[in-house]
Amino acid sequence: MFYKKKYLPLFLGVATAAGIFIGGKLNFSDSPDKLFSTNSKKEKLNRLIDYIEYDYVDDINTDSIVDVTVNGILNNLDPHSVYIPKEDLERVTENMKGDFVGIGVSFYTYRDTITVIRAIEGGPSEKAGIKGGDRILMANGDSLFGNNIIDGDIVKRLKGPINSKVDLTVYRKGAPKLLNFTVKRGVIPIKSVDASYMLTNKLGYIKVNRFAESTYKEFKKGLDKLIDSGATEIALDLRGNPGGFLSIAEQMVDEFLGKNKLILFTKDKRGHIEESYATKRGSFENGNVYVLIDENSASASEIVAGALQDNDKGVIVGRRSYGKGLVQREMDLGDGSAVRLTVSRYYTPTGRSIQRPYKTIGHKDYYDEYSERLDSGELLDPTKIEVADSLKFKTPKGKIVYGGGGIIPDVFVPIDNTLHNETLQYIEQYQFFDNFIFRQLDLDRHAYDGISRKDFIDSFEVDDDMVVKFQDYVNTQTRSKITFVAYHDEVKQYLKASLAEQLYGNGAFEEVINKTDIMIEEVIKLSETAH
Known about the structure:
Layout: H1 12-19, H2 32-35, H3 40-55, H4 62-75, E1 82-84, H5 86-97, E2 99-102, E3 105-110, E4 113-119, H6 124-128, E5 135-139, E6 142-143, H7 151-158, E7 165-171, E8 179-184, E9 186-189, E10 193-198, E11 203-208, H8 215-228, E12 233-237, H9 246-254, E13 262-268, E14 273-277, E15 288-293, H10 300-310, E16 315-318, E17 326-332, E18 338-347, H11 363-367, H12 369-376, E19 392-394, E20 400-402, E21 411-412, H13 422-429, H14 432-443, H15 453-459, H16 464-477, H17 488-504, H18 508-513, H19 518-529
Parallel strand pairs: 11-12, 12-15, 15-16, 16-21
Antiparallel strand pairs: 1-18, 2-9, 3-4, 4-5, 5-6, 5-7, 7-8, 10-11, 13-14, 13-18, 17-18, 19-20
């Protein structure tokens, strides 16, 4: 299987949840004996749980009580210290690892049957001969179709140990009989670099959707490809990126900063400071860089933006970032669950903490700050951004920067209300674009055979008839009646982008969407006027 990442602003809660994976570089100085020694507070909790288990009048699942207790404790700390139940830990770890073992297809459950959208290029299924549109009916003799089958069960049956084999029975439209394939499971990447291509003859573009273990390797591959294509400037798109591992952010920054430039420093409760410096191995130390951020760029994304801004390297473009300056470390709780606990704060090279205040407000209000930014007008007008003179800092070249709540861009770009309206976000959230395009392709998968990726992106146009069909489709899926009169062109663009992605794979969606992206347009203008 393959989990794709679309270009859309993420919901704030999702961004925050994913952003907590930053860190893992610090160690406790206390010994295990000291950390876990018995005391009256711990005994108090243990006794209460024992009383409930043995003496309470009704049968109670004490595991659930423990989960509630752990969550209650963490809720009294900071918004980014979180508990991960054992049933979620494998999925969470897999996502941040950046790959998993599987057969290598993206699929859609269509009319109670697994239907392949695309076989991942170079993956096990493509090598075995599986194509887009194929229906996978059976795996090792077990049925994979029917109303009772759910995606989670499908994933479990198709996953397995690396190099193990799975026998698939497949229906292919037009084939005279069912087809049989034997697929050897392999390592399947979960892409964290959505796109890497040239915007102009000198400006390369890379979009990174998170900072997983595999992200730096993907990023470096994309960066090298752009350098080989003649890029002397890079647009690094971190919009909607909720963060991830701190070490990956450090490696990425190192590509842009010269030797011994400070990337960041961290400070724990004991006042212990650890500093991170750039090395001499950076491959883009002399090129211009533009970092694109928005209100959902968090954690490791802010480390990258802050390090470059404070070193007077490049230009930060967009809107004020999320504002997360805390570092978490994952700790095993012994039963398959884990806690990610905040163990330090990080600071940008000038000494800024960009963590938003959280002690005086509840966690709900903390997560709801996007609404406050929207209501205040900050997303449309940079003068509405609140700054404090007490948190003013200077870069080596004298530029004024502020701490206290996110990275404030050097060049402000307002939110595009046309693309960020509730109707389009609702349609995208429920994958109506993808599902509709899949159905249209399934009618005739050879209709686009003669069109190259470049010709499609540059010249293909979605006609009005497809928009009408899409509107009818959406209205069959929802109770309310939706019309696209106000954003007809935007719907066409999203349909084209979804079609491009299903036809041509990774990066095609972004290439189409970026054609009319106002932040991309601003970066191209900056590039054209740069000396």
